[in-house]
Automatic annotation (TrEMBL):
It comes from Polarella glacialis. InterPro entries: PPM-type-like_dom_sf, PPM-type_phosphatase-like_dom. This is PPM-type phosphatase domain-containing protein. Pfam families: PP2C. Coiled coil: none annotated. Signal peptide: none annotated. Residues 1-100 form the PPM-type phosphatase domain. It comes from the Eukaryota.
Amino acid sequence: DRPALALTRTLGASAASECGVSAEPDVSAYRLRPGVDVLLVLGTDGLFEFCSNTTAAGQILKEGVTDTCLSSLCRASRRQWAQSSYNETVDDITAIAAVLPPDTPAGLGS
Protein backbone atom coordinates (compact mmCIF):
# COMPACT_ATOMS: atom_id res chain seq x y z
CA ASP A 1 0.00 0.00 0.00
CA ARG A 2 3.05 2.28 -0.12
CA PRO A 3 4.46 3.95 -3.19
CA ALA A 4 7.46 2.30 -4.82
CA LEU A 5 10.61 4.40 -4.77
CA ALA A 6 13.77 3.86 -6.80
CA LEU A 7 15.95 5.88 -4.45
CA THR A 8 17.51 5.59 -1.04
CA ARG A 9 18.68 9.17 -0.38
CA THR A 10 16.93 12.51 -0.65
CA LEU A 11 17.47 16.16 0.16
CA GLY A 12 14.83 17.64 2.40
CA ALA A 13 12.10 15.02 2.03
CA SER A 14 11.90 13.80 5.60
CA ALA A 15 8.34 12.54 5.04
CA ALA A 16 9.80 9.84 2.79
CA SER A 17 11.55 8.29 5.79
CA GLU A 18 8.41 6.22 6.38
CA CYS A 19 9.11 4.56 3.01
CA GLY A 20 12.72 3.76 3.88
CA VAL A 21 14.38 6.83 2.36
CA SER A 22 17.16 8.46 4.37
CA ALA A 23 18.25 12.09 4.45
CA GLU A 24 21.64 10.96 5.80
CA PRO A 25 24.16 11.56 2.99
CA ASP A 26 26.95 9.30 1.84
CA VAL A 27 30.08 11.40 2.30
CA SER A 28 33.36 11.00 0.45
CA ALA A 29 36.62 12.93 0.74
CA TYR A 30 38.63 13.79 -2.34
CA ARG A 31 42.06 15.40 -2.41
CA LEU A 32 41.84 18.40 -4.73
CA ARG A 33 44.63 18.98 -7.23
CA PRO A 34 45.35 22.72 -7.43
CA GLY A 35 45.01 24.01 -10.98
CA VAL A 36 43.47 20.72 -12.14
CA ASP A 37 40.28 20.41 -10.10
CA VAL A 38 38.65 23.72 -10.99
CA LEU A 39 34.95 22.86 -11.13
CA LEU A 40 32.43 21.12 -8.87
CA VAL A 41 29.31 19.80 -10.59
CA LEU A 42 26.49 18.16 -8.65
CA GLY A 43 23.63 16.57 -10.51
CA THR A 44 20.94 13.96 -10.14
CA ASP A 45 21.06 10.67 -12.00
CA GLY A 46 18.38 12.18 -14.24
CA LEU A 47 20.99 14.59 -15.56
CA PHE A 48 23.86 12.13 -15.91
CA GLU A 49 21.82 9.32 -17.50
CA PHE A 50 22.27 11.05 -20.87
CA CYS A 51 24.96 13.67 -20.16
CA SER A 52 28.53 12.56 -19.53
CA ASN A 53 30.73 14.18 -16.90
CA THR A 54 32.98 15.47 -19.68
CA THR A 55 30.08 17.00 -21.62
CA ALA A 56 28.66 18.73 -18.54
CA ALA A 57 32.02 20.06 -17.36
CA GLY A 58 33.02 21.17 -20.86
CA GLN A 59 29.83 23.12 -21.41
CA ILE A 60 30.01 24.75 -17.97
CA LEU A 61 33.67 25.70 -18.36
CA LYS A 62 32.92 27.16 -21.81
CA GLU A 63 29.71 29.03 -20.92
CA GLY A 64 30.24 29.69 -17.21
CA VAL A 65 28.24 28.74 -14.14
CA THR A 66 24.96 30.42 -15.06
CA ASP A 67 21.28 29.57 -14.87
CA THR A 68 21.25 29.60 -18.68
CA CYS A 69 24.02 27.01 -18.95
CA LEU A 70 22.69 24.69 -16.23
CA SER A 71 19.13 24.95 -17.60
CA SER A 72 20.45 24.08 -21.05
CA LEU A 73 22.10 20.91 -19.69
CA CYS A 74 18.87 19.95 -17.90
CA ARG A 75 16.73 20.62 -20.99
CA ALA A 76 19.04 18.49 -23.16
CA SER A 77 18.77 15.60 -20.68
CA ARG A 78 14.99 16.05 -20.46
CA ARG A 79 14.73 15.79 -24.28
CA GLN A 80 16.86 12.62 -24.26
CA TRP A 81 14.70 11.12 -21.51
CA ALA A 82 11.50 11.86 -23.44
CA GLN A 83 12.92 10.39 -26.66
CA SER A 84 14.24 7.26 -24.96
CA SER A 85 11.18 6.50 -22.85
CA TYR A 86 8.30 4.49 -24.25
CA ASN A 87 5.81 6.71 -22.41
CA GLU A 88 7.85 9.95 -22.32
CA THR A 89 8.62 9.47 -18.62
CA VAL A 90 11.34 11.85 -17.44
CA ASP A 91 13.42 11.36 -14.30
CA ASP A 92 14.06 14.27 -11.94
CA ILE A 93 16.84 16.45 -13.32
CA THR A 94 18.83 18.89 -11.19
CA ALA A 95 22.23 20.50 -11.75
CA ILE A 96 24.35 22.66 -9.46
CA ALA A 97 27.86 23.89 -10.24
CA ALA A 98 30.60 25.99 -8.67
CA VAL A 99 33.98 27.13 -9.90
CA LEU A 100 36.60 26.25 -7.29
CA PRO A 101 38.88 29.13 -6.30
CA PRO A 102 42.50 28.77 -7.45
CA ASP A 103 43.75 28.94 -3.86
CA THR A 104 41.64 25.96 -2.72
CA PRO A 105 43.59 23.94 -0.13
CA ALA A 106 45.25 20.82 -1.54
CA GLY A 107 43.15 18.44 0.53
CA LEU A 108 39.73 17.99 2.00
CA GLY A 109 39.15 16.10 5.20
CA SER A 110 42.80 16.12 6.20
